[in-house]
Amino acid sequence: MKSFPFDSAVTYDEAGNPVYDRGYNSQELRAFFHLLYTDGVFPAPATGLKVVAYSQEMSVQVLPGSACIQGALGIEENARTLVFEASGEAYDRIDAVVARLDTNYEKRKIDIYVVKGMEAASPVAPELVRQGGIYELRLANVFIAKNTTMISTERITDTRLNAEDCGIVTSNPERVDTSPLFDQYQAALASYLKYVEECIDGTTAGALRAQLGTLKTQLGTTDISNIGDGTITGALASLNTHTGRIGKLLFSRSYANAFSEGAIEIPDISDYKVFIGYFQTALVSPMIGISTGSNIIFTGSIITSTTEAAVGRTILGISDDTLTFIKGYAILGIWGLDIY
To answer: Which of 30, 42, 52, 161 is most solvent-facing, going by the fewest CB within 10 Å?
Structure first.
């Protein structure tokens, strides 16, 4: 691994020349700076290495500025005047002004050059050279019109901000590739969400089991398969229907006078608990019996007052039977038949 800067221990060869055990060459230093800075012109001043028109024939000026090319630094302290070749007679051309790094031994420098383009009916700018120890940054393209001797501002295209041709020096890397980190984050997030989903499913399943257990306890062992459509909702709907029918039957029976006996036919309510109640207004306390078929389900005295008295009984298992009243006196009506 290369690492620096460190001080060298100095020894000497037979000719007396120093030998450094931690010496570094220019290529290693350029590689180091290339890790820190991108290629381009430095942003300060804003006019750094800008190409502008000049009053001299076929000339432009490059304003003072600095550039970084592949880790090598070039600093132009003064305005540089560049002279272009004469224009063609038949066709236009486009020349380029470049800052060129040349690491070949004969050059070993950064300098500013004019690269001549090809004359054509539709001219294009010359390609940049970036091989063989040479690396160029395009500062501007200059349109050289045929049969002209001056270069105006309108003929100069500033390319310093074009990242492909030149660009502005920034910290390197300007952007960090976070794709692997993002992929890792996405995988971790997906794993976490799956874990949460599994936990939620487990909790939900436990809650549902508890609710079903409670419902089962509340329902007991009652078989409702033959009530309505066999569901709880159907059984309740059927219950409401039967209750309405029974209520209608009972409320339709009113007696204004004393009677010795009476009977009311009722539908099948064998699967329900039914509360039957009635009231009467009288000053006597008659004996009353309520039976279903041969089964006597209530007998006793009604305790009366000057207003009213009521009795009731919960009846189970009445099935398509006749409700019979025996020895009733002054009964006005049966008033309550409802779910108990």
So the answer is: 161
Tell me the C-alpha distance between 30 and 246, whole Å: 104
Tokens representing residue 283 in the block: 């000053």
Distance, in Å, from the CA atom of 319 to the CA atom of 314, rounded to the nearest integer, reads: 14
What is the model's pLDDT at position 205? 67
Q: Is residue 55 within 8 Å of 79, Cβ to Cβ?
A: no
Q: Are 282 and 266 in contact (CB under 8 A)?
A: no
Could you give the CA distance from residue 66 to residue 77 in angstroms, rounded to a whole number?
8
For 275-286, what is the mean pLDDT? 41
Contact 300, 291 (CB under 8 A): no
- 168-178: b (≥16 Cβ within 10 Å) or e: ebeeeeeeeee
CB 46 within 8 A of CB 168: no
Phi, psi of 246 (to 5 degrees): -65, -45
Closest C-alpha among 309, 298, 312 to residue 331: 309
Amino acid letter for position 308: E
pLDDT surpasses 60 at 255:
no
CA angle 315, 316, 322 (to 5 degrees): 70
Q: Sorting pLDDT into bands at 50, 70 and 90, what band is 333?
A: very low
Q: Report whether 56 contacts 84 (CB < 8 A).
A: no
**Residue 315 structure tokens:** 């009846």
User: What is the mean predicted confidence (pLDDT) over 76-82?
Assistant: 97
CA–CA distances in Å: residue 231 to residues 61, 243, 268, 339, 340: 96, 18, 19, 19, 20
| Cβ contacts of 33-36, under 8 Å, gap ≥ 24 | 33/68, 33/71, 33/72, 33/73, 34/70, 34/71, 34/172, 35/71, 35/172, 36/171, 36/172
C-beta of residue 113 within 8 angstroms of C-beta of residue 142: no
Cα distances from 67 to residues 82, 104, 167, 171, 248, in angstroms, run 18, 19, 10, 13, 103
Partners of 94 in beta bridges: 143
Instruction: Answer whether 223's CB lies under 8 Å from 234's CB.
Output: no
